[in-house]
Amino acid sequence: MRHGKKVNHLGRTNSHRKAMMGNMATSLILHKRITTTLAKAKALRVYVEPILTKSKSDTTHSRRTVFSYLQDKDAVSILFRDIAEKIASRPGGYTRIIKLENRLGDNAEMAIIELVDYNTVYGGDNAQTAKKTTRRRGGKAKVAAPAAKAEAAAPVAEEVVEAPVVDKAPVAEAPVAEVAAEEAPVAEAPAATEEQAPAADNEENAEKGE
Fold it and tell me: DSSP for the chain?
């Protein structure tokens, strides 16, 4: 029986365990969430949260201390530049562990560990939508009143637009009728002269025959 088991060695030597925890902490800082076994996720939470707390004070000593654990310059710069601003107002509890289904190969318990302020599973989006729905429920009467006013005003606007269209229609048709009336005699005049010309020729031929 193992009394006072404060540290889970994860079946590894001390140096192997420290290297693995440093690599997993670097991956968590770079990618904001990783999938691993439940035992490793719980051990990583204890390992990485003091490092995240250390990043809140951006000093040379803090950067060197964090680098001694992570051994990655990119991770250290991202931690102090981006993540430290996100967690500035959070007094702890920077990570969240979400259990998954057991692994098929060895039936190991799997889990996702992620930074709370960079979550994609739980968080503020659902809470904001819930707040919006409650506010809309309380203000249905206020929203319905302006809608009714808008519907009442709509027919008035349509009548005003249709009135000038009816007045302009006869004005546009009047010139067309006048032009047709003026063109009618002009078209008939040449037709009458053409009919009279053969009649005159017939009379001349009749006189010559006599």
Answer: --TT--S--TTS-HHHHHHHHHHHHHHHHHHSEEEEEHHHHHHHHHHHHHHHHHTTS--HHHHHHHHHHH--HHHHHHIIIIIHHHTTT--S--EEEEE-PPPTTT---EEEEEEGGG-SSSSHHHHHHHHHHHHHHHTHHHHHHHHHHHHHHHHHHHHHHHHHHHHHHHHHHHHHHHHHHHHHHHHHHHHHHHHHHHHHHHHHHHHHH-
Name which of 91, 84, 30, 95 is nearest 55 in CA terms: 84
Q: Residue 56 and residue 114: Cα distance in Å, rounded?
A: 18
Q: Which among 2, 52, 6 is positioned nearest to 26, based on CA atoms?
A: 52
Cα distance from N-terminal residue to C-terminal residue, the chain: 158
Q: For 103-153, write each residue's pLDDT tens digit.
A: 999 999 999 999 999 876 665 554 455 555 555 665 555 556 666 666 655
What pTM, to 2 d.p., does this model score?
0.58
What fold does the segment set 14-122 form as a domain? Answer: 50s Ribosomal Protein L17; Chain: A, (3.90.1030)
Report the chain's mean pLDDT, rounded to a whole number. Answer: 77
What is the rounded average pLDDT of the residues 81-88?
A: 94
